[in-house]
Specification:
With 379 residues, the protein is of the alpha+beta class. It has two domains: 148 residues; 153 residues, no CATH class. Strands 1, 2, 8, 9, 14, 15 and 18 form a seven-stranded mixed beta sheet that branches. The radius of gyration is 30 Å and the shape is flat. 27% of the residues are buried.
């Protein structure tokens, strides 16, 4: 009997959390729809303003301070170097990828809701501090002599136009870099050569003797390189002399982006709107999940009250989840629909109609659930 009252008590405590989650989801939905509508308007305005630069090799004074589009080869005259491994590339970005075979700790909950710790060996791209393990003895990791690192060219241009740091960072056309095996071997001592192995364009460094990639030992390293070579890109930004910067629309939205490939101005605008739509739907589903969870917690006492009856708790729990889902849809669709009525009336009205349908189903389900609970409690 004590377990029964404990379940009821816990379910009532959960209600207070649910009461916070529901308005939280409404605020998230409202903010997301405001953000989505605001961004949509800004992109629509930018689409009507953007102009394509006629020649990437000549600075266009008439387009200065305007929103412009340009496509061309992003390149640099700089050579990026990794001095530790004698890698040098004429590239926009250069990255050294390092992994070490080491112990990792995995925390799990057992059937009694206590913490359990499992230890396994794996390739990891950062040092794992084994001194923090709950069972450090027998799971010691050595120091990691080489760490991953990256470098970026300071000046990247499309013709005479220089890209700023943000646009340069968006160029992510990574390609593998061939390791300079001869240069690496030439600079190794005789002892070091016994611990180095080249395989599949990666360098393996063993702790003891020649490493075996199929049977690594604790502390073995694997190192490879990637670079972003000169790449064709498309930019939408404000022209500022021979540079680009953020363009602000009349409603405060920022247009300052780059995509890989030869895209038209319309293609760039479509990509921006697509990104806006994806973000909107991600946040909508997240808000809906929070709302469902909130209503489910609020309705959980119904399941707890009948938990002393065999199978009643499972049946009532399933019904309350359906009701919670319908209530969450009602709240979410209403919030989203109201937000879009002014911008896209047809979409907003359709969403409100869907919310009305959810309300109708909730009413039916609530009556049915009340009858079920009464039948289970009152013989």
């Amino acid at each position: 009997m004590f377990g029964y009252f404990k379940r009821v008590k816990n379910s009532i405590s959960g209600m207070f959390v649910g009461f916070l989650m529901i308005p939280g989801s409404v605020l998230l939905h409202a903010w997301n729809e405001y953000r989505t509508v605001h961004r949509t308007k800004g992109i629509a305005e930018a689409k009507g303003l953007i102009e394509t630069l006629p020649n990437p090799d000549v600075i266009s004074a008439q387009h200065n301070q305007k929103l412009v589009h340009i496509s061309g080869l992003a390149e640099t005259e700089e050579t990026l170097v990794d001095e530790d491994f004698f890698v040098s590339e004429n590239a926009i970005h250069l990255a050294r990828n390092v992994m070490m075979f080491q112990w990792i700790e995995d925390e799990k909950r057992n059937s009694e809701n206590n913490n359990e710790y499992e230890y396994k060996l794996a390739w990891v791209d950062h040092p794992v501090d084994s001194s923090r393990f709950h069972q450090a003895t027998g799971h010691e990791n050595p120091n990691m002599p080489y760490l991953k690192r990256s470098s970026t060219a300071t000046e990247v241009r499309i013709g005479v136009y220089q890209l700023d740091e943000k646009l340069t960072d968006r160029i992510q056309n990574w390609q593998p870099v061939d390791l300079p095996e001869a240069a690496i071997i030439e600079n190794l001592t005789a002892e070091q050569r016994e611990r180095y192995l080249f395989k599949n364009n990666e360098l393996f460094i063993g702790v003891k003797g020649v490493p075996e990639p199929e049977r690594p030992q604790i502390g073995d390293l694997r190192i490879g390189f990637q670079a972003v070579p000169p790449t064709t890109v498309s930019v939408a930004a404000q022209l500022r002399g021979d540079r680009f910067g953020p363009f602000e629309t009349s409603n405060g939205e920022i247009i300052h982006t780059l995509y890989t490939g030869d895209l038209s101005a319309d293609d760039v605008m479509r990509n921006l709107q697509s990104e806006n739509n994806v973000m909107a739907w991600v946040l909508r589903f997240f808000g809906l999940a929070i709302c469902v969870g909130g209503f489910a917690l609020c309705l959980r006492p119904l399941s707890a009250l009948v938990s002393f009856i065999p199978f009643a708790e499972q049946l009532t729990g399933a019904l309350t989840f359906v009701v919670a889902l319908l209530l969450a849809l009602l709240v979410s669709l209403t919030t989203i629909g109201i937000s879009w009525v002014a911008v896209r009336p047809l979409l907003g009205i359709c969403l409100l109609a869907a919310a009305a349908g959810a309300y109708f189903l909730v009413s039916r389900m609530s009556k049915r659930q009340t009858s079920v609970v009464q039948a289970e409690i009152i013989p």
